[in-house]
Amino acid sequence: MKKWIILFALCFCGFTLMAQSPFNIGIHGGVSNNKIKVKDAALGLKNGTNTGYMLGVFARINLGPLYVEPALNFSHKKGEVKDEVNKSALKYNSFDIPVMLGLHVIDVPALKLRAYLGPVASFTGKLKWDNEDFGDRLDNRKVMWNGKIGVGVDVWKLTFDIDFEKGFKNFQNKDYIKVKSPRSFNFTLGLKII
After folding, report:
1. The domain that contains 93 carries what CATH number?
2. Residue 160, class by beta-carbon neighbours within 10 Å (0-12 exposed, 13-18 middle, 19+ buried)?
3. Structure confidence at residue 133 (pLDDT)
4. In 32, 125, 152, 173, which residue has its Cα 20 to 30 A from 54's Cα atom?
5. Nearest to residue 138, comparing CAs of 96, 74, 95, 182?
6. pLDDT digits (tens, 9 = 90+) for 154-193
7. What is the pLDDT of residues 55-91, one digit of tens each?
8. CA neighbours within 13 Å on the CB side: how many for 46?
9. What CA–CA distances, in Å, run from 37 to 71, 81, 90?
10. Are 76 and 91 contacting, i.e. CB atoms less than 8 angstroms apart?
């Protein structure tokens, strides 16, 4: 019995020390609910939401009550577009580099409640339609800038985040078709390795 108590105490001390570390590295992944608005002069299109996913790594530099958290993420996002006859998903992949500035609202050894915001540089690929009736790929290979705001909870090594992300610029802005910047709600689960 003494061995179990000692083992539990050592594990708890390790978790406590890790939670107070000034620098963390971890992995995270999650799902997103995305909306990409498409306006076409000839078609009466309706836009809906669709589910995407994200995988990545993050680093967190704790500076007292504040922290800076850069990350590198691979994202797959989709939006739904339909007219009177057809329906299609407009999808794309991107490598995202968010740099969040955050505040530890509650900061105790085993639990942290965080609020954060910051810019996201999104290196996007081509936008693709699921249904060919909606047209070809839209060549959008460029850097898009997004803004992100959210809240998170850390319980020892686990992180849970909910955030809202919105693009600052349209994907495509031509006379016949406008593809607006994406909006997404992201739900992520992470694990601090260091």
Report:
1. 2.40.160.20
2. middle
3. 54
4. 173
5. 182
6. 999 999 999 999 988 877 666 666 677 788 999 999 999 9
7. 999 999 999 999 999 999 999 988 777 776 777 777 8
8. 7
9. 27, 8, 10
10. yes
What lies within 8 Å, CB to CB, of 81 at 6+ separation is 36, 38, 45, 46, 47, 48, 87, 88, 89, 90, 129, 134
Residue 5: band (very low, low, confident or very high) from pLDDT cuts 50, 70, 90: low
148 CB-side CA count, 13 A = 29
Q: In what order do the strands lie in the sheet with 38-40?
A: 38-40, 177-179, 172-173
Please check the confidence at residue 137 and state whether its pLDDT lies above 80: no
Instruction: Identify the CA nearest to 78 among candidates 12, 33, 13, 139.
Output: 33
Q: DSSP readout, 42-109?
A: SS--EEEEEEEEEEEEEEEEEETTEEEEEEEEEEEEEEEEE-SS-EEEEEEEEEEEEEEEEEEEEEET
The residue type of 122 is S
Q: What percent of the chain has pLDDT over 90?
A: 48
What is the residue range of 65's domain? 2-192
